[in-house]
Amino acid sequence: MDYSKLSDKEVNRKVQIASRLIGSLTGRGVLIVRDGKWEFFDPCNNPADAWPIITANKISIYAMSEADKRGGWGAEAFHPNDAYSFNDNPLRAAMIVFLMMQESANVQDNTA
Fold it and tell me: I need a labelling partner for 106 at 20 to 30 A (CA). Which of 3, 8, 81, 97 fits?
């Protein structure tokens, strides 16, 4: 799937589902249940939501050179997964890598 074509809200929803968090998509964004309360979940823009996912999945984030036109930031999965993404928003790039990792894991789990 080409996650780069999705809106932040759509990426956030897919991250919420892949993370197995109880939640709901609303007109204003994704809500999850955290500590017994409904809260907005925006890992594409909120470091507090993104960082636990980034560290748990060993996703690297790095600045790109100005000459590289793919985006200001890159994100990459830890070996052996070769998922990577470039975007002007480093958290969005990392969340796309997370989704690519989940997709890759599902493909591996479904091969017989």
Answer: 8
